[in-house]
Specification:
The chain has 331 residues and is of the alpha/beta class. It is 38% helix and 22% strand.
C-alpha cells in the first residue's frame, strides 16, 4: 500500500509552497523518480535511513523506499461544496486519500493577500471544515433515498446502512467529523471526507500560533504541526506525522537485487503483510523468516544472523513489527 495525502486550505495559505517543497525532493531511484501524475500530484520518498543501511549491507542494485503521493487541491472558498470557485473539482482528488493535511495560515505578511482580508486561523479552519461537512451532507442525502427504498423492500444491509447514515447526518449537523464511525462499511463506500484523519499544518513560526488555535484543534481530536513552510525540514516531519496518525509502519526485504520498504498498517499479520508484496504470497503463505533490522546490520549478513539465533521462523499468526526484515516462504 502507499500513503496518499490530500492538501487542502484557503487560497494563499501555503499550499503551493508546500507542494513546491515536495516537488523539489530528489528520490534517487529509478523505480520511483519524482513524478507529477498530473499538475497537482507529486510522489516523494519516505525518509528512512534503514533502507540505505540495509542496501549497503546487501550491496543491493536498487533501493526502493516507501513513497507518499501528495494531492495539491486548488484553494477552497466559501460555497465550494455547491460549486463556488473550483467547486466540486477538488473532491475528485481527495476522495481516495487516506489523510487530509489542512494548511492554516498563521503568519502576517502584507505582501500576501488573504482571501478574507485578514489573518484569522480559527475562522479559516471553520470555513474549510464547513465545506467538508456540507459536501458530506450532500453525499449522504443523495444516498438516503435509495437506502430508504431498499430498506422498505426488506434489504437487511440497507436497513443497517440507513441507520448509520442517519447517525452520520446527525453528527454532521452538530459539526462533528465522522472519524468515530469511519470504519463502518457504508461510510468507507461513500468515501466521506470528514471520516478521514486530518493533520493541521500551521504555517508560521511557533509564536504565530496562538493558544486558542491549538485548543481548537485539540478539541477536534486531530494532530497539528507548526512549520514555516520555507523550511525544508517540514516535509519529513509531515510524513512522519501522517504515518503516526494512520498507524502505519514499514517492514523490509533486502538482497543483492534490491532493498525495499513496504508500508502496512500496524497490527497486520504476516500473511497480510506478505500480500502487500504479492497477492499470491498471502494466499500461499507458509512462513516468514524474520530478523529485526538493527540485529541484521549488527550480524552483517542474513546467514550470520541465523547462526547467532537472531533469525526467527514465524507463522500465520505473527504480527509484523516496525523494522522487521522478512523473507516470505510460500507455496
Amino acid at each position: 500500500m502507499k500513503l496518499e495525502v490530500g492538501i487542502v486550505g484557503l487560497p494563499n495559505v501555503g499550499k503551493s509552497t508546500l507542494f513546491k517543497l515536495i516537488t523539489s525532493q530528489d528520490v534517487h531511484i529509478a523505480n520511483y523518480p519524482f513524478a507529477t501524475i498530473d499538475p497537482n500530484v507529486g510522489v516523494v520518498a519516505v525518509p528512512d535511513e534503514r533502507v540505505d543501511k540495509l542496501a549497503d549491507m546487501s550491496k543491493s542494485k536498487k533501493r526502493i523506499p516507501a513513497v507518499v503521493e501528495f494531492y495539491d487541491i486548488a484553494g477552497l472558498v466559501k460555497g465550494a461544496y455547491k460549486g463556488e470557485g473550483l467547486g466540486n473539482q477538488f473532491l475528485s482528488h481527495i476522495r481516495n486519500v487516506q489523510v487530509i493535511v489542512h494548511i492554516v495560515r498563521c503568519f502576517e505578511n502584507n505582501n500576501i493577500v488573504h482571501v478574507e482580508g485578514n489573518v484569522n486561523p480559527i475562522r479559516d479552519i471553520d470555513t474549510i471544515e464547513s465545506e467538508l461537512i456540507f459536501k458530506d451532507l450532500d453525499t449522504i442525502e443523495k444516498r438516503l433515498g435509495k437506502l430508504e427504498a431498499d430498506a422498505r423492500g426488506g434489504d437487511k444491509q440497507a436497513k443497517i446502512d440507513l441507520e448509520i447514515l442517519k447517525k452520520a447526518r446527525e453528527m454532521l449537523g452538530k459539526g462533528e467529523p465522522l472519524t468515530l464511525i469511519a470504519d463502518e462499511k457504508i461510510i468507507k463506500e461513500l468515501q466521506l471526507l470528514t471520516a478521514k484523519q486530518q493533520i493541521f499544518l500551521m504555517n508560521g513560526k511557533p509564536e504565530d500560533v496562538k493558544d486558542d488555535v491549538k485548543e481548537k484543534i485539540r478539541g477536534m481530536k486531530f494532530e497539528y504541526l507548526i512549520a514555516d513552510l520555507a523550511d525544508a525540514e517540514s516535509l519529513p516531519n509531515l510524513i512522519k506525522a501522517a504515518y503516526s496518525t494512520l498507524n502505519l509502519i514499514s517492514f523490509f526485504t533486502t538482497g543483492e537485487d534490491e532493498t525495499r520498504a513496504w508500508t502496512i498498517e500496524r497490527g497486520m499479520k504476516a500473511p497480510q503483510a506478505a500480500g502487500v508484496i504479492h497477492t499470491d504470497f498471502e494466499n500461499k503463505f507458509i512462513r516468514a523468516e524474520v530478523v529485526n533490522w538493527e540485529k541484521l546490520l549488527e550480524a552483517g549478513s542474513w546467514s550470520a544472523a541465523k547462526q547467532k539465533g537472531w533469525q526467527r521462523l514465524e507463522g500465520k499468526d505473527y504480527v509484523v513489527e516496525d523494522g522487521d526484515v522478512m523473507v516470505i516462504r510460500h507455496g
